[in-house]
User: Which sequence fits this backbone?
């Protein structure tokens, strides 16, 4: 590794402005189970396969601890937090019904962002988003979409229910564990049955027969659980890798050189916030992790030749990047909406009736 330099606002500006600069920024964070190295953690489970564990050619097993879509869905709501909410428009959609007339959802919580079905089912917002996507498609001007839903440009979006416009992710994060060993578990449910007297047992048994239901189903009999997934132990590192695609950033334009510069700096600021903000690493039951690094080291990957490396302590980095993102947002002219948009059930029904070329939900998560 070459000499580590100190990260500054000027360096971040160069990353955003220079089309011949680095092609990507890469951050690797070492994570640990809260009970230390060798602690048991539980990866996500998937239909038909259980854990996602790959065996490499040398026999090493690598497990996916958190997927790219999952990481995106954990990072995007950061911009709803008090310290970051002024960085992006806080668009809300009222899903209210008779039982809960004031039930709102933020666009930052929607899996498909500006291309989500709920957005397409909201009259005014659907029209505004449609115009923004069409302008992006016809003139490559991303400013209108960034004014509405900038995270659709940061985390990627596919307007599969409208214009079919696709935007790649500027930021991609994933967590993997190396050299893993898979564990199994078994359990036994012990019911209250042993504490009942003979008359109570007979009464319950007769009623269960009458209702044609098993006592165990209703919790009145012991049930041994079959052997199941018991988590993993990582003998190798657990790593969160974040990649910011500067080539994708350079492809984004405004309607002038000045607006293009402001837009790219703004989006890069958001991507850096998403990468470095202290998100909770409680990924699921049985998977609580912590960051082992006191400082982050960013690798600016050159088109050719050696990379450059930049570092600050975690506290300094958070402050520097937050300040940069705030300045970039102010220069870009982020405006907060003056109203809440309304979900229209009639429009949602029309969306259901519309014939689609293909069902894309499974490929556009996160």
Assistant:
């Amino acid at each position: 590794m070459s000499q580590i330099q100190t990260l500054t606002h000027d360096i971040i500006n160069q990353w955003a402005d220079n089309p011949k600069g680095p092609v990507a920024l890469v951050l690797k964070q070492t994570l640990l189970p809260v009970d230390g190295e060798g602690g048991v953690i539980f990866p996500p489970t998937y239909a038909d396969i259980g854990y996602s564990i790959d065996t490499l050619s040398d026999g090493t097993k690598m497990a996916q601890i958190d997927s790219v879509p999952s990481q995106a869905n954990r990072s995007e709501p950061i911009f709803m937090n008090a310290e970051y909410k002024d960085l992006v428009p806080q668009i809300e959609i009222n899903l209210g019904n008779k039982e809960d007339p004031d039930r709102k959802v933020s666009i930052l919580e929607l899996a498909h962002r500006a291309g989500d079905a709920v957005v397409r089912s909201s009259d005014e917002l659907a029209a505004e988003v449609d115009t923004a996507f069409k302008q992006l498609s016809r003139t490559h001007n991303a400013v209108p979409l960034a004014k509405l839903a900038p995270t659709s440009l940061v985390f990627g979006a596919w307007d599969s229910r409208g214009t079919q416009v696709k935007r790649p992710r500027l930021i991609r994060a994933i967590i993997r564990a190396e050299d893993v060993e898979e564990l199994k578990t078994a359990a036994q449910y012990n019911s209250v049955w042993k504490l009942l007297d003979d008359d109570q047992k007979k009464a319950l048994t007769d009623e269960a027969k009458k209702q044609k239901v098993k006592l165990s189903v209703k919790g009145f009999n012991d049930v041994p659980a079959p052997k199941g997934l018991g988590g993993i132990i990582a003998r190798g590192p657990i790593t969160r890798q974040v990649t910011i695609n500067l080539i994708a950033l350079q492809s984004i334009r405004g309607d002038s050189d000045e607006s293009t510069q402001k837009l790219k700096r703004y989006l890069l600021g958001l991507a850096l916030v998403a990468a470095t903000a202290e998100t909770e690493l409680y990924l699921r039951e049985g998977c609580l992790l912590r960051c082992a690094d006191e400082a982050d080291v960013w690798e600016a990957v050159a088109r050719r030749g050696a990379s450059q490396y930049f570092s600050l302590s975690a506290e300094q980095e958070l402050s520097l990047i937050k300040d940069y993102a705030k300045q970039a947002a102010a220069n870009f002219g982020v405006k907060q909406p003056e109203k809440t948009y309304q979900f229209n059930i009639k429009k949602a029904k029309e969306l259901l009736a519309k014939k689609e070329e293909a069902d894309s939900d499974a490929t556009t998560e996160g």
Remarks:
- Confidence is low (pLDDT under 50) at residues 357-365.
- The two ends are 33 Å apart (CA to CA).
- DSSP finds eleven helices and 20 strands in the chain.
- The CA atoms of residues 50 and 229 lie 8 Å apart.
